[in-house]
Amino acid sequence: MTTCSGQHAVVGFQLDSTPLLSRPTADLAEPRWDTLDQTALWGNGLVVRVDARGRTPLIADDRLVCVPAKEYGSQPVAGAVLLAVRGETSYWALRTEPDEEQDTWRDLRSAGGLLDDTDASLLTTAVGLLGWHDKARYCAVCGATTRRVQAGRARRCTGCDREEYPRTDPSMICLVHDGGDLVLLARQTKWPPERYSVLAGFVEVGESLEGCVRREVAEEVGLAVSDVRYLGSQPWPFPRSLMLGFAAIADPAVELRLAEDEIAEARWMHRDHIREALEADGPVRGLRLPPGVSIAYRMLRGWAYWND
């Protein structure tokens, strides 16, 4: 196919690599709940500490500092949630506050890309699970308090006995391009000057993912898109999203209509400009791209260097 300007369409690009918070961890397993011996697991456990801001202590900025579970006692402590098991070792998460130098505590946004596959998976799960527990203390049906069950992987209502499991909110994120050398980037009103990214939005009730792409792009910048195509996904526990990446094509000749109070600026940018910004350590000609830990970065890099 060709673009509106007659260029040959570049529609087959993929993510340049697996998103950093989606890396496979075949050595980690979730235990069967019907055979779970929490006391035994705790005895061989390691605890990932996470504060209220989603930060955890790191060694040399790239390794989790895990505390032996036995330091907290012989039984799982209140508030502990089971993350995974690797061999004879179990991994737990616990909400806590920094008791060391503050500058050794880092969050997923700043350090997620530095961690290895296992540590990145553990911290992503820990942040998501603990955040869900913070906001699921009351039953949505009867309003009674809920308590942690299944080693923190579920909650049960103390009133109606209803069980609830961690929620994940699907959100689409879409790289809109012209099929050639132009990509559309936008800056949200709450972002600082020069920071741009691809478009994103939450999936609404009764809506397909593709329908969400079309609606959100139309609402945010006033464009109709075609050739909607799935690229990949990434957990984004801020607080509990799953980012579902797509690509779509739009006509750069159509006037942009920005969503008031949501999109401050939107611009079509050339591939060469994107490449410069990807390789820079700061803004390039008024453009600063999303951090490397985000799926948006992987999407832009995949598009910018496709077929090189």
From TrEMBL:
Keyword list, A-Z: Hydrolase, Magnesium, Metal-binding, NAD
Cofactor entry: Zn(2+); Mg(2+)
Enzyme superclass (EC): hydrolase
Cross-referenced SUPFAM superfamilies: Nudix
Sequence ranges assigned to domain Nudix hydrolase in this UniProt record: 166-291
One Gene Ontology biological process: NADP+ catabolic process
Pfam entry (one): Zn_ribbon_NUD
E.C. designation(s): 3.6.1.22
The reaction(s) this protein catalyses: a 5'-end NAD(+)-phospho-ribonucleoside in mRNA + H2O = a 5'-end phospho-adenosine-phospho-ribonucleoside in mRNA + beta-nicotinamide D-ribonucleotide + 2 H(+)
GO cellular component, one term: cytosol
Molecular function via GO: metal ion binding; NADH pyrophosphatase activity
Residue intervals passing through the bilayer: none
PANTHER family: NAD-CAPPED RNA HYDROLASE NUDT12 (PTHR42904:SF6), NUDIX HYDROLASE, NUDC SUBFAMILY (PTHR42904)
Family stated for the protein in its record: Belongs to the Nudix hydrolase family. NudC subfamily.
Name assigned to this protein: NAD(+) diphosphatase
